[in-house]
């Protein structure tokens, strides 16, 4: 299962959606802010996992968010030897949130980030690296209404989407995307989702 190829494919598709214009049908308009001006972010648990909403994701069986090859997925990716539960270390929105693979050394954590003004898959830095891509935001994540949200300066927002990986590549799998590009449209293969935050321990699997 070539997840790097999947990520590249979705990035190119999302770029195409941005230029598709507002005449597309069956799409989710990402230009509409998904924020709660009156909400205030609270700290994430010290260790937490994420569960995606399922509305509009026909055929989805496993909605716990998994890590694979530098990004986050839901669905049958669970059965891939390349995937593992996405358990992130949390805390204050002032600080970075990180993930450490159980294949990595204890100091090999990865920092979680999104390209805040783009529509692109969520990302993680390389192990042992603090290199954050240009245009990425890695602080400001917290909990509002029980969900993972991001404060980009106008209050908490949750511009999460799940984009279907082509069945020819892998069946029943969606990649988690931050849909931040103003005016961009997601195809009918992408659906807005919320990501529920749940406290976790290293010895247990993600939320049921």
Structural class: mainly beta
Given this structure, which CATH class is correct? Mainly Beta
How does the overall form come out from the CA principal axes?
A: globular
- The CATH architecture would be Trefoil
Percentage of residues in DSSP E strands: 25-35%
Tally of alpha and pi helices: 1
The total strand number stands at 19
CATH topology: Trefoil (Acidic Fibroblast Growth Factor, subunit A)
Largest sheet: 7 strands, antiparallel
Helix content: under 10%
Order of helices and strands: HEEEEEEEEEEEEEEEEEEE
Number of domains: 1
Short description:
With 208 residues, the protein is mainly β. It is 8% helix and 33% strand. The chain has one helix at residues 3-18, and strands at residues 28-29, 47-52, 66-68, 71-75, 83-85, 88-89, 98-99, 110-115, 119-121, 123-124, 136-137, 141-144, 147-151, 156-157, 160-164, 173-179, 185-186, 190-192, 195-199.
